[in-house]
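Hi there. Long-time user, first ticket. I'm pasting a complex I've been working with (about 436 residues overall). I'd like to know whether the download I got is complete or cut off, because the file seemed smaller than I expected. Thanks.
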Amino acid sequence: MADRREAVIDLLGALAYGELTAFERMATDSRMAPTVTDKAELARMAAAEFAHYEALVRHLKERVGVDPEVAMAPFVEVIDRFHDVTQPNDWLEGLIKAYVGDSLAADFYREVAALLDDETSAIVVEVLSDTGHAEFVVERVRAAIALDPPLAGRLALWARRLVGEALSQAQHVAAQRDALVDLLAGSTGPMGLAEVMGMFNRLTDRHSERIAALGLSG
Amino acid sequence: MADRREAVIDLLGALAYGELTAFERMATDSRMAPTVTDKAELARMAAAEFAHYEALVRHLKERVGVDPEVAMAPFVEVIDRFHDVTQPNDWLEGLIKAYVGDSLAADFYREVAALLDDETSAIVVEVLSDTGHAEFVVERVRAAIALDPPLAGRLALWARRLVGEALSQAQHVAAQRDALVDLLAGSTGPMGLAEVMGMFNRLTDRHSERIAALGLSG
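Hi, the file is complete. Here it is re-exported in full:
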């Protein structure tokens, strides 16, 4: 049970620091917006991420009884590195990063929530239910590609790179956080290797659907 | 009365774009934070600015009946320029910019609110009442100076530069926005030159008090 608690703290700590940095990076990327309205749309997404961060920190302190800074610490380097190697070069790359990153994280945490105790599961689902500020991204990216079709190829590559970097950083985490890996796929955990593979297939499928909805080739 | 309406739109448009860019720049500057807790403190200030922006945009649309993007447009260049020439070089400069900028803008708008119709005055006061997230700045800056006293001189210069740049950009605005200047100091306005001078003296005095509270040599 100690290991299980450790794994829950890891999950919430990683999610919290992920939300805080998503906030910071989206806000930074909003500077590249072509209009004030666009800037405000991405800023709104960022502000929602910060609200999630606050909810998670409150939960870690009050319900789990752990210092949020301690819970986040193991993930600071790996999440910062993800952002550093995926700095968008322009507004559209920033939009796609916000959309793909947000959605992929939400899908992953929804899958994992099913494995958790009710209280942890409830906070994770609650925090993730307030996304959906990202729909404007689909419209903006499709409009840009309609004006300049060759864009689709470059942006598709960019989306692929984002997922590749996310997986690569996730492997670093897996190599270091035994309790977390045990929770997901350990001998006492609820998922065997087949279930973990199944989960990754579902995440990848949903990612591909989103990429198609954006009008990217793939 | 047309001029008065124009001046009110200018004031709200400038405040809205100021809040949106304050959000974006504070969030960006939070990357320099030495700890996750510090990063979250500045992020919290930024998120409050975004909530102000949303309230102002709603007011412009629903009560004033003007496209917020149109209201903000005349101030985009001048406010962006202010931020571009005052990019903080480190975490402490970022904190001081957030604190000094936020407070100076709040003081200015509180002075001006007294000259406005009740409804406009109410939204301005409401938006500004939710500041005060900045108090942690005083503690952090004082602690840093206690550890390294020569810092005080450099940071005092920085604070002076911030005010100088803000005044310089304000002069650009004044040169271009006749209705606004008329509202504040025109022949039909409520303030004569003496009153305007008095207002600037009060703003400067309060700024000096804040600089002293930060432990800067002033």
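A couple of notes from our side: Residues 48 and 169 of chain B are 24 Å apart (CA to CA). The radius of gyration of chain B is 17 Å.
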